[in-house]
Automatic annotation (TrEMBL), chains A, B:
The EC number(s) this enzyme carries: 2.7.4.16
Lineage of the organism: Bacteria, Bacillati, Actinomycetota, Actinomycetes, Micrococcales
Record's protein name: Thiamine-monophosphate kinase
Alphabetical GO biological process terms: thiamine biosynthetic process; thiamine diphosphate biosynthetic process
Similarity comment: Belongs to the thiamine-monophosphate kinase family.
Keywords: ATP-binding, Kinase, Magnesium, Metal-binding, Nucleotide-binding, Thiamine biosynthesis, Transferase
Binding site for Mg(2+) 2: D48, D77
Pathway(s) per entry: Cofactor biosynthesis; thiamine diphosphate biosynthesis; thiamine diphosphate from thiamine phosphate: step 1/1
Gene for this chain: thiL
Ligand binding (ATP): G124, D125, R150, S225
């Protein structure tokens, strides 16, 4: 059954029951607007869009994959403020020839991420379109705390990261290689490489680590969506400091990706330091803070002279690329 | 200059200064998420998407037109809850060959609607795409009042409407006719017909009438985006009543559209009762309420027997169509 075989109301009747109501939802879908609790007297809001053939390909990603990604990348931005996610709304533009099952899968993907967190999918809009475009706006509650901005890193702070590094980029490279008709490497009969493809198709984010960092007194935080070096550079520039990362801290990440890198002829360091869409959290903590267990220390905040790079690795400007630009398109 | 000539950051540097910060904005664009005040301890949220060649055509609509529409249709949903709009976020997917001026115009269109209301455009996301897709999520504050739902209409209430009826549909018909190479009618040297084309390209909504209705004790309310009969039917079904509209109440609307209807061979009653995208507000008030001056009474809430239609005009089931389905596509 295709989308074009149903009216909007019939399609909604299949989707809405899949969506979690959420523990902060005071009025769910069905009226002109939803109502969400904001006990803090403020709410955090962020938005991101996924466009077919730019952010995902239908040949590789199921509806559930895309739904999970759309939820995770938005909720990670909420968490990166130190907020607890409460709700999201979604607009979905889809071709008439799309299988209804794909759309229901997308709803299930949103639900799979949101449901366990008590996040409600509280509203949406459907439209026809020549290609799939999924736009999400997500909200969160700061629980009375000040937000953790990217601009608060101070000289002497430790730099810490929660989540994974380079796994999504590695997964993308493996999928690309498989799609190009090559094998993923000698002896491999699939491209999964211990979950790397899944890490690309269904990234996860250590969402509870955001509020944990805020409670622990994080001085700065952001979501690592465009690559560690690039996002660290943003934090460094916003804070007027230099982030010096310690190469030793990434040895395990690089080792873990070594086989996949060999298989596709890539540099695992480029994945770890430059790969996008892992949706970890980068944060800084004062020298006396107790860094939460969800984070590992990866460097130190240093002063930045006029000619200094914003980010260094072991005090040297890194040789690998600066990550990628969603807008200019990614290198696939 | 085309979008593809700029990086995402360069394009943002042109757009962001155009956007109003808003009087409820505690933290604007630039970090992972924005922060908006919710003094009521709740917030209202709604979302809508506009897809090129389905909701608008670039040959007819400027970037500013589309920006205005995107803002108005979302803020109207906020107002229809009885809330005061506070903020919106927007995702914009655009082709690389699009003029940068079109995108800046879209930002100006959002600003033209939001700025005077104190509504902030607090966040966004940009992506490339083969066609323009604009998605907005809008938020509002209920100021301590209960929301005005569509389900609250009670037998004996008066039915009232704020805003215009049929003007957007008339404008669309005129634009269609002009695009098809016909003239808009004998003696016309343009298709403007006293602002009807503008009413289609840049619909307005009586946004302050939403909170006014709530303060006056409106029992039910919704945004009229899909045609009066269709949206009245939604209210009637949600409330378990019949809305009886009084034909006399629409005489002036029909008269005003008579010339344009003659020019394109249309029935002005179909525009007034069935035309979409006027974004007026339909509300019901108890028999003793003082209906705000922004509304005019157009009917009465009656009981509904099992076989009754949800909406009648002078107690008879109306002969014109039920409006249109955004998803199945509109009749252009």
């Amino acid at each position: 059954m295709h989308v074009a075989d149903l009216t909007e109301e019939q399609l909604l009747a299949l989707i809405v029951p899949e969506l979690p109501l959420g523990s902060s939802t005071l009025l769910g879908p069905g009226d002109d607007a939803a109502i969400v609790a904001a006990p803090d007297g403020r709410f955090v809001v962020t938005t991101d869009v996924l466009v077919e053939d730019r952010h995902f390909r239908r040949a590789w990603s199921s509806g559930e994959d895309v739904g999970r990604r759309a939820a995770v990348q938005n909720l990670a931005d909420v968490a990166a403020m130190g907020a607890v996610p409460t709700s999201l709304v979604v607009t979905l533009a889809v071709p008439g020839e799309l299988d209804v099952a794909w759309v229901v899968g997308l709803a299930r993907g949103l639900a799979a991420v949101c449901g366990p967190l008590g996040v409600g999918v509280v509203g949406g809009d459907l439209s026809g379109s020549p290609l799939v475009v999924v736009s999400v706006a997500a909200h969160g509650d700061l629980q009375g705390r000040p937000p953790v901005l990217r601009s608060g890193a101070r000289v002497g702070d430790v730099v810490a990261h929660a989540g994974v590094l380079g796994r999504s980029a590695a997964g993308l490279a493996l999928v690309d290689r498989a799609a190009a008709g090559g094998t993923a490497g000698p002896g491999d009969d699939d491209v999964s490489h211990d979950g790397l493809v899944t890490a690309y198709l269904r990234p996860t984010s250590p969402l509870p680590a955001g509020p944990e960092a805020a409670r622990a007194g994080a001085t700065a935080m952001l979501d690592v969506s465009d690559g560690l070096l690039r996002d660290a550079g943003r934090m460094a520039r916003a804070s007027g400091v230099r982030l010096d990362l310690h190469a030793d801290a990434f040895a395990a990440d690089v080792t873990e990706l070594a086989n996949a890198a060999l298989a596709v002829g890539a540099d695992p360091w480029a994945w770890v330091l430059g790969g996008g869409e892992d949706h970890g959290l980068l944060a800084t903590f004062g020298p006396d803070a107790v860094v939460p267990a969800s984070f590992r220390v990866i460097g130190r905040v240093e002063s930045r002279a006029a000619d200094d790079p914003a980010v260094t690795v072991d005090a040297v400007a890194p040789a690998v690329g600066p990550g990628w630009d969603h807008f200019a398109g990614r290198p696939d």
